[in-house]
Amino acid sequence: MPELPEMETYRKLLTEKIAHQQxxxxxxxxxxxxxxxxxxxxxxxxxxxxxxxxxxxxxxxxHLNNNKTxxxxxxxxxWMFYGDESNKPDRTIQVKLSFGGMHxxxxxxxxxxxxxxxxxxxxxxxxxxxxxxxxxxFTENTFQQLMGPKRGMLKxxxxxxxxxxxxxxxxxxxxxxxxxxxxxxxxTELSEEDRSRLYHSIRAVLSEAIQFGGYMESPLYVGxxxxxxFDAKCKVYDREGGxxxxxxxxxxxxxxxxxKTFYCQVCQH
Length: 269
Ligand SMILES: [Zn+2]
Known about the structure:
4-stranded antiparallel β-sheet; globular; alpha+beta; 269 residues; binds zinc ion
């Protein structure tokens, strides 16, 4: 599932491609991907201009000039492609937004969705989300206070969207490795110094992943050199049996609360 760095990469690249562009056509092939009757959805979106694209947690918010916002969550398996008819991916398209001859294709939206809301409604829809870990006002002090009373396993805590926004299966493992802490370690077992290292790892890992374009497999458009660059940089995630880059021991794959979890038994305590 795309996490904060993947959605931030989409935000950056889509802003270059479609900000200030008019949506000339809308196609909805899967009713369940939208939150209103299809006709009403098309009526609210077609002809509008995308003003800005914002990211919040794992969501993208496309702000339109009629004071509506398209709220996107790709969930598991969702991805996007921007191109013309000739390079359209050979996949089922759930929703398509057209910008003249160019189109933004939404693919794999089985659980994912593209909802239309009044702009003022959006903060209410997203109110349960925890703080953005890369925001300037998310200080180490704030993190110490939030993390201090947490009893659950580190992995479970990190992926809890009401605790922190945007971290999922991959980055929780990468963050634990970077901090040198085991993902099954309990929050209450952490010292103040552990929490401090954890805070800095969260920021460093997410920032580096954004810099390298996240881990999505498919490029957003033909010639996209950014998307997916972080995939080869993952140190533990999806590397079962591979040699740890730090100590050479094989990376372990485990399941924690029915989530795949990867770690190094030697480097993480
Ligand atoms: Zn190791």
